[in-house]
Amino acid sequence: MIWAQLSVFTGDSRVYTLDSMSDMESLRRALAESPENVPLLQLYAQACVEAFSLSEARETFERILNIQPHSSEARLGVAKVLYFEGKTSEAAIRAETLVKEKPDFAPAFVFLSRLYLSENNKALAEDFYERAIALSKQVADSALEKELGLSRERMEKGENEKSGDQRHLFGSEWKEEDPDSPPGSEDDYFFDDDDDEDPFSNPQRDFSLADFERPKVSFADVGGMEDLKEEIRMKVLYPMQNQELFKAYGKTVGGGVLLYGPPGCGKTLISRAAAGEIDANFFSLGLHQVLDMYIGNSEKNLHQIFQLAREKAPSVIFFDEVDALAADRKDLKQSAGRTLINQFLSEMDGTDSNNEGVLVIGATNAPWHIDPAFRRPGRFDRIIFVPPPDEVARESIVQVMAKDKPINDLDARMLAKKTKHFSGADLKAIFDQGAEEALTLAMKEGRIVPMNTKALVKVAKSIVPSSKPWFESAKNYAMYANQSGFYDDVLSFLGIKK
Amino acid sequence: MSSVQGQQGDTGEPDVRRAEHLEQIGRTEDALSAYRAALAIDPKNADLLRRFAHCQMRSEKEAEHALGTIDQAVALVPNDPYNHVVRSLVLADQRKPKLAVAAAEEAIALEPELSIGHTALANAYLKRQSWHAAEVSAKKALSLDPDEEMSANILAHALFCQGKQVENQVHISGLLHQDPEDPYTHYVAGLAALQAEKYQKAEEHFLEALRLNPNFDAAREGLLNTFRARSFVYRSYLRYAFFMTRLTSGQRYGLIIGLLLAVQLLKGAFRNVSPGISTGIGVVYMLFVLWTFVARSVGSLIVLGDHKARRALRFMERLDAVVVGGGVVVGLVLLLAGFVLGQSPLIALGGGCICMAVPVVMALTNEHPKGKFLYGLLGLINVIALSAMVVGLVVPGLDLMDSARTAGFLTLIVTTWLAVFGVLYRN
Q1: ipTM value
Q2: CATH number at residue A154
Q3: In A138, A407, B149, B422, which residue has its Cα 20 to 30 A from A285's Cα atom?
Q4: CB contact under 8 A, B214 and A481
């Protein structure tokens, strides 16, 4: 993820699976086994750049160049490291030499564009970027486009003029290439055509139903976790499905449900599955879709979403990482963020509008950061603890992870048994590390070496469940800040309270 | 926090705004990612680097990299006092108080009326255990900005460490009135109450600090101290600890060495007059030394007996309570029984338990990796010596008692001398 963010600068649109320092360690181990492995070296060097270990990154890129003197990626990597070290001229010379020798290597053009933009040479930066896009649309960098003041239409036009291809929609093609990036994603958000002319204008998003995708998952797609599903059925689904019955008892349908639990345990998936079970419009929002750099716009965005949900009721608004939008105001002191929280409270209350049929689901792994005002009746008054997956759920996750991988005699139940408290993300790490080890062996032996249950169990023993630090923190909150019984489920899960 | 971060040169970058917001709400790791994204676009922005360093300092995973980051910011804009302020905070956090003082002084030299510069200096002095200097700097910071919370809390801490209870009480009351939701203020209020032996009050403040910030480890430790203070052994130890805190490190060493010399002189003087008194002085001194080492563990053992209070103990603290606290209690019982019954093997076993407890407590409470290993090794030697004593007693004809006793005693002496000078020990 971090690399994806760094790639905003580097213009490198390839997908790397590195997301932590522990990956660097596993790469180091893999490299110790296979020191001449260029793809591994490349991954390691990228990881070093990501971690700002510039000298190590440069050393690694140079190792690649010793093995493959013409590697464009490594040459570009050296240029990037030089840039990060502040040696802009040397970086530019190296990158320009590279594009002269390899005129079809688009990432180098994007890098040059970034470099010249940072040197305030916008014209050259624009030229390099357009040349990059003409070579490959895959290197498109919407953040850079915005900084350059390029509109999509202009890019399309320019590209079509250069390539002579039939005109096509840049945006839709981009979405096809990146199915994980939902409409209204971060890149989309910061790409604002109307903003080109006047940088001080106050752009605001216009949300519509088309911005939100209806979830295609349901509870049937979530393995195990039966108790949790039942709790959600009782607290969320049945009221939405039996609105008339609830009205007969003078109860309103809607309100808020807060899902909390350790990271990587499926809060988002189960929320989407819950929404998939109801015949309602679904609005899934991340922090980036609401937060706006201009004062007042975040509040407007939030209002607009609620307004849309009210118009399209019955509807479900899902806020991932809700603690960021509903933060405790005492943490913010005089910050402008307080007004956003007040707005959120007011929208949940439906002070000026009717929230009938609007269900708000929030998911968080830091419930302690949520302002206590959100827990009052009518707001997030139904609280659901999402624990790490149970054994049945882990078994089904293991089966999904094992798909299309060379594994001998997979005993999913055994692996599930040995991975108590592991989250879905931890289980993925087992397979990733297992695959790396098998790959190292395969490279040494020159043949496919399949993984097996024993090796995966061994890897599992070396991984500390990521939920552990969460439970350490949660235990402290449950012990010292549990005046309202908010964390009783955590205490029960830990066996402290029966 | 914004004052520590310096003037907000609003870059207008969404990532920066997001990073600041995430940092404010305590999502440090996410904030770091957002700062990284902003830095990827603008890697030579000193303001950003400073904020990134400040955020890194608060992260468990990245605190060690904070110094490198802030050094980059200082290299880019050496005349920005805020860069030196954050550098000072980072250095103090990394237990480099002398360098932290120098960095804060650099900030003050650049802008003498910068309150946060004086706060950083007070913080550095606090870390250097120069309580009076910390008090002076904190007061200076408060004279420049009376709302500066950090310096107000540092002042309370400095007053507490100097034993200025009355002044501290007034100061803390003002702070609590100003912001009753500040966990650090409740923490220092708890410490002050603990010092004044108002244990119930101290417990309330520590619990309030923990309610406001359940991950506040120092407050948890304070709460444990109030629980431990239920025993006379630990109450008297707290008085001793508070007394020692008021002294400078030089005074502390002087007192310890002076006491040792005085004991030796007294023992020598009474040896010919009354050997019993001479031995008694030696025993009392040994008990005093032992008490300074194990009072905390014995206190934890008592806390372990309370089913509610023991929840506050962590695994290592429980281990310490059982192994060290339990070892000492068993050792003392055996010693007493041995003396009463005239059984030298019981006396030897009791002594063995106590000899084992001292290096073990130094290993269990030590955060210094090499120290943990060294004291752990010494503890292991004494565990083996104790086992050898038991084997020697059980197996007829196997005389291991003398060598085991010598090993245990020598290890105890080595441990206490290393510990007095804080060699390879960090807590």
Answers
A1: 0.71
A2: 1.25.40.10
A3: A138
A4: yes
